[in-house]
Write a structure and sequence with these properties.
With 467 residues, this protein is α+β, with helices and mostly antiparallel strands. The protein has helices at residues 20-37, 51-58, 63-67, 84-87, 97-100, 113-122, 167-170, 182-203, 221-234, 241-249, 263-267, 278-293, 338-341, 356-365, 384-399, 413-422, 433-438, 456-466; strands spanning 41-42, 48-50, 71-74, 104-108, 132-141, 153-164, 209-214, 299-300, 312-319, 328-334, 347-355, 377-381, 404-405, 427-431, 441-445, 451-454. The structure holds histidyl-adenosine monophosphate.
């Protein structure tokens, strides 16, 4: 006999169950509505892509690409059927790695910005009216250490605005957006941020805080990074091993450090705002002015550098309450040049992604979960004739959009009413011989226990008015 085995969801993954999935749907529907009012259409890219797409976009030295991606070879082995041992869960290595090398290396997506840019190029979206505004929702995968608000399969709701730079302006955009385009880009940045804030406001998310920064462009950032590296080398001995390593690989990431002992040192480092080139400084000032015009409150955080390599100029992060240490509910920024890096035309880009798991957690902590999957009507029926009427009533009510629970076998009325109560039904429709004979249905309002007789049409009317 086969060994009795209890299966569990893999660490860092989880089942989303009703009634919580109601909230997930409400959140996604609200995103669809709000983003739609800003002219965004939905894109659904695939869940796996060539590993190189992510490595090139996000950066090979980032944690996401270097440590956290689920990567595998395709096909994983020769095309003969999988050996039984493998299907039965035995963890033996099959084949030699060298046999597998010529195959394609693919990864589960850790984020979707790279995919959206790939799709923009692949479908020639530069020929559409610009900018192209796209939003998406779906699972992302990162092999991080799971904790509250951090999972290995998590969900994002994101949006991207892509705009090809016309060739006559490409020179101006050589540093990915020159002086002339600064005000326009700033307005686009501000509108994207305004949209995500409007979405959070619509959901009633509490304790929302927006932080913004500018991390410069290809002209000014390298100089700042060198300055930062030189300053960091002076204090190298006082830094932890991670930051020491980052002095070489990516000094900007030192600013991200949460290590208590490093905070004093970081506070004394040169700030990028003081080293922006004229174009970047003008754009950053304009982003702030535009946010002000839109009534969006923000705080500046010069240490906000973000963990993905494709960003330039505007970066932002939004936190919400009730999330503990993983309190970033949204991150985003500008990534002019990414489409070109992936083989497309010079193109500007700005976008964000919301951590949907964290958004849901924060709403639940604030009591805005709205959980119970209630029923509008519980049909309590007894007798064969009553069943036919109950089924017909159920069909009509469901077609009219009401939630109906129709027991498959007859139950004593007392038991049926008890179940209606447990399910949180608003009304119990009681159908017995009497009701069938007279055509007058008994309707019990469960909240106050009151009972009334009425026709089918009157009951439908009552439902429409009271729900
Ligand atoms: P990100 O900051 O890596 O940016 O992720 C965005 C959000 O996804 C985070 O703020 C967080 O809420 C959520 N998130 C990230 N990792 C996890 C995890 N392991 N568990 C739960 N939630 C998580 C991006 O992904 C960029 N693609 C955003 C973007 C779009 N920038 C421009 N366009």
């Amino acid at each position: 006999m086969a060994e009795k085995k209890k299966f569990q969801a893999i660490k860092g993954t989880r089942d989303l169950l009703p009634p919580e999935t109601e909230l997930w749907n409400r959140v996604e529907q609200t995103a669809r509505e709000v983003f739609g009012t800003f002219g965004f259409g939905e894109i659904r890219p695939p869940i796996f892509e060539p590993t190189e797409l992510f490595a090139r976009s996000i950066g090979a030295d980032t944690d996401v690409v270097g440590k956290e991606m689920y990567t595998f070879l395709d096909p994983p082995r020769d095309l003969d059927p999988l050996p039984r041992e493998l299907l039965e869960g035995k963890k033996e290595r099959i084949g030699k790695l060298s046999d597998l090398l010529p195959r394609e290396v693919i990864s589960l997506r850790p984020e979707a910005t790279a995919s959206v840019c790939r799709a923009y190029i692949e479908h020639g979206m530069h020929a559409l009216p610009q900018p192209v505004k796209l939003w998406y929702t779906g699972p992302m995968f990162r092999r991080e250490r799971p904790q509250k608000g951090r999972y290995r399969q998590f969900y994002q709701i994101g949006a991207e605005v892509l705009e090809m730079v016309p060739s006559f302006a490409a020179k101006d955009a050589a540093t990915a957006g020159g002086a002339k385009s600064a005000p326009k880009d700033a307005a686009v940045d501000a509108e994207v941020i305004e949209m995500v804030m409007a979405f959070f406001a619509r959901l009633g998310l509490e304790g929302v805080k927006l932080e913004i920064n500018s991390i410069g462009d290809r002209e000014c950032r390298p100089k700042y990074v060198e300055l930062l590296r030189a300053e960091l080398l002076k204090v190298k001995d006082k830094l932890g091993p991670d930051s020491q390593r980052r002095i070489e690989t990516n000094p900007l990431r030192v600013l991200d450090s949460k290590l208590e002992s490093e905070q004093g040192i970081i506070a004394g480092l040169p700030k990028i705002a003081d080293h922006l080139c004229a174009n970047c400084a003008a754009q950053y000032a304009e982003v702030k002015r535009q946010l002000g015009m839109r009534g969006v409150a923000y705080a500046e955080n010069w240490r906000l550098v973000r963990g993905l390599d494709y960003y330039m100029r505007t970066t932002f992060e939004i936190t919400a309450q009730g999330l503990g240490s993983q309190n970033a509910v949204c991150g985003g920024g500008r990534y002019d040049g990414l489409v070109e890096l992936l083989g497309g035309q010079p193109t500007k880009g700005i976008g964000f992604a919301i951590g949907e798991d964290r958004l849901i957690l924060s709403l639940q902590e604030a009591g805005k979960g709205g959980t119970a999957l209630g029923r509008d009507v519980f049909v309590a029926w007894m007798g064969e004739k009553a069943q036919a009427t109950a089924i017909a009533a159920g069909q009509k009510l469901r077609a009219a959009g009401f939630r109906v629970e129709l027991p498959p076998v007859e139950q004593k009325f007392g038991k049926a009413l008890g179940q209606a109560d447990k399910l949180g039904a608003r009304y119990a429709l009681i159908l017995g011989d009497d009701e069938i004979a007279t055509g007058q249905w008994t309707v019990k309002t469960l909240a106050d226990g009151s009972q009334a007789k009425m026709s089918e049409a009157e009951f439908l009317e009552l439902l429409r008015k009271s729900l």
